[in-house]
């Protein structure tokens, strides 16, 4: 124990202990009639911290609340309609919908854009909540607000994501099986993932055959589950999104999964004033770092939905491949690829994916019939 100035022994304070007034200012009944409140909410997996500012930007309440519906409803139900700022994350979709039901205006901050919080040298949940509140009070555009999709679209999109996870698990199992066989000097037969079965391990020596069959048994089961997911997604498409996806599937290389993911991820096509904004939304626009006369060439931003971006890139690879039919989009991509070697081909794929995203949004909004050689025909008419 430590000794005070009088020589008496005093208990050593517990690490992290703070004064009660500094740690928490509970939301009281006096705030029920207040107006112009701004709340910062730092969401955590188990507990979330909040900070309430009044019209003069003074802290009038702060504390922590369990990250569950009942607790959040009890705390924020005591507040009058206020502006609530929170960072995008796992819990932000359902929390934002809950707070909107309680009458609050929710601002979901893009964590990648709020560098003041993510790179702070004194970062903690309590301080993050206050920073969010102050940024929202100063200018909400500083938070680069993110718009969450509705509950129905999120539930439907979950079916697409579950299928993607099953495909990834199957790929890992196949790669493991082939790798183990190679380490013993053997190879599994070449075939599509959908056709790989336990019988393909029959030619392997006995010591390793049983082990490889365990993996191939899992591959067979995953293939059946993926087929079941495909059937469910096709039913979902016909039942709810048939009109929208039919417009997108006019483009060669765009199938049910890509069209459905595109529609469910964007949800509302009219949220974009121009179709070109969709390329930025999916993270396929080049980054910029211009300063004076310096403007270096940089990679794409890779912001937005990762899975949708990967699907668009896969479509771009198909369009530029020999299997892809001749279209204006393919010709444009091949001209980019012809400007260099391997690096130029990668750039061409990304460029085609970005232009494909713009094209799909335009077809969705306008409802026009897709003309694969529209630009070529226009130029021929002008030349004539």
Structure description:
The protein has helices at residues 20-23, 69-76, 92-101, 115-118, 125-138, 151-183, 206-248, 256-266, 277-281, 306-320, 328-337, 342-366, 374-383; strands at 2-3, 9-10, 38-42, 47-53, 59-66, 83-87, 105-109. It is built from 13 helices and seven strands. The strands form two sheets. It has a five-stranded mixed sheet. It has 384 residues and is of the alpha/beta class. The protein folds into three domains: 21-143, 2-Layer Sandwich (Nucleotidyltransferase, domain 5); 150-242; 249-287 and 301-370, no CATH class.
Q: What is the CATH class name of the largest domain?
A: Alpha Beta
CATH homologous superfamily annotation of the largest domain: ATPase, nucleotide binding domain
For the sheet with most strands, the description reads: 5 strands, mixed
Q: What level of helicity do the residues show?
A: 40-55%
Number of helices: 13
Average the pLDDT over all residues and give the rounded result.
Answer: 87
CATH 2nd-level architecture of the largest domain: 2-Layer Sandwich
| Alpha-beta classification | alpha/beta
Q: Compute the number of strand runs.
A: 7
């Amino acid at each position: 124990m430590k000794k005070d100035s009088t020589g008496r022994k005093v208990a050593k304070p517990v690490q992290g202990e703070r004064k009660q007034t500094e740690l928490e200012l509970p939301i009281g009944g006096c705030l029920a009639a207040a107006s112009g409140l701004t709340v910062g909410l730092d969401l955590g997996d188990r507990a979330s911290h909040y900070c309430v500012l009044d019209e003069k930007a003074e802290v009038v309440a702060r504390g922590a609340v369990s990250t569950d519906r009942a607790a959040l409803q009890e705390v924020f139900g005591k507040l009058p309609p206020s502006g609530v700022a929170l960072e995008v994350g796992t819990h932000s979709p359902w929390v934002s919908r809950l707070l909107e039901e309680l009458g609050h205006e929710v601002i979901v901050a893009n964590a990648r854009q709020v560098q003041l919080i993510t790179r702070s040298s004194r970062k903690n949940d309590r301080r993050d909540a206050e920073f969010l509140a102050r940024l929202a009070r100063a200018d909400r555009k500083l938070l680069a607000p993110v718009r969450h999709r509705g509950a129905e679209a999120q539930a439907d999109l979950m079916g697409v994501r579950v299928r993607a996870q099953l495909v990834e698990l199957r790929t890992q199992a196949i790669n493991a099986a082939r790798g183990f066989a190679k380490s013993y000097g053997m190879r599994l037969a070449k075939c599509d993932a959908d056709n790989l079965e336990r019988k393909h391990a029959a030619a392997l020596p006995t010591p390793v055959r049983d082990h490889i069959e365990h993996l191939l048994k899992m591959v067979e089961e995953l293939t059946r589950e993926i087929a079941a997911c495909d059937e469910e997604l096709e039913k979902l498409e016909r039942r709810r999104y048939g009109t929208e996806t039919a417009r997108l599937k006019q483009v060669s290389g765009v199938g049910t999964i890509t069209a459905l993911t595109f529609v469910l991820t964007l949800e509302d096509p009219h949220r974009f004033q121009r179709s070109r904004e969709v390329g930025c939304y999916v993270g396929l626009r080049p980054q910029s770092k211009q300063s004076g006369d310096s403007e270096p060439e940089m990679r794409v931003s890779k912001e937005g939905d990762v899975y949708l971006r990967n699907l668009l890139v896969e479509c771009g690879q198909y369009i530029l491949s020999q299997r892809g039919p001749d279209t204006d989009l393919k010709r444009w991509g091949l001209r980019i690829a012809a400007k260099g070697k391997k690096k130029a081909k990668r750039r061409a794929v990304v460029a085609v994916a970005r232009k494909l995203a713009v094209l799909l949004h335009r077809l969705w909004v306008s409802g026009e019939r897709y003309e694969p050689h529209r630009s070529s025909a226009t130029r021929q008419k002008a030349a004539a």
